[in-house]
Specification:
11 helices, six-stranded mixed sheet, alpha/beta, binds uracil, Uracil-DNA Glycosylase, subunit E, extended
Amino acid sequence: MRLGDQIEQDWDAAYAALTWQIDCGVDDFILDEPLDRFALPEARAVEVRAPAAPERPASAPPGAPRPAAYAPPPERPKIDPVVEATQAAARAKTLEALRAEIEAFSHCELKQGARTTVFADGNPKARVLILGEAPGRDEDQEGRPFVGRAGQLLDLMFAAIGLSRTSVDAETAFYITNVLPWRPPGNRDPEPGEIAMMRPFVERHIELVAPDVIVAMGNTPLFALTGTRGIMRARGTWAEALGRPLLPMTHPAYLLRNPIAKREAWDDLLTLRDRLRGA
Ligand code: URA
């Protein structure tokens, strides 16, 4: 067998094995056991000596000063990612500029593991802005929020009160984005530090869209906007965030797992519809 054939066969076998695993539901590759890389034995310490002051070059005239001794570079100032995010968000005067600022923001580690930056979808003129948690696998692949199973349910829920993300009419449209623009590995819950870091972008996003009402889908957006958790208690009751009416609702992924809760979600949708109608 030629080497080329061997490589081709290995590639096909590897590809088949990978597709099989994806079909089985694998969406991340991790070790069997967690590995604490901070606990690994330290690399052999290497003694670093500052180089001695350089000799005066032989060609230098007698009495000429010796070149300056080596000085270590000055310590770089510590970066506060929340301050960086606040400044970046403030620079954005349009949604496109905000998207560019988020794409250029390099302090959130989630970005390293994500395929795409998921910014937003829907009509930015809509009266309703829906804030979700973070992209999942489907959203990470497609680059748009709420396109997986939970997103399909969300579209059906809002269609039931006459709202859609594709409507060009502000009255019947919604706009949708997430607290985090990058998928957390294995769809784990976002960490408070990640939420705090990306919050300035969320605030600016909402300012730029200027919706009449915000819907917080689940605990993470509720926490990002109000500093409190407890979606089951908060859902269905109007609150306020960033000077705008806020309606917390249960996340459609929760409704997929607990279909019985759809009844309360329907009540919440009617609460939203009444508010939009000025009732
Ligand atoms: N869940 C979310 O909160 N956001 C998405 O974009 C998808 C699923």
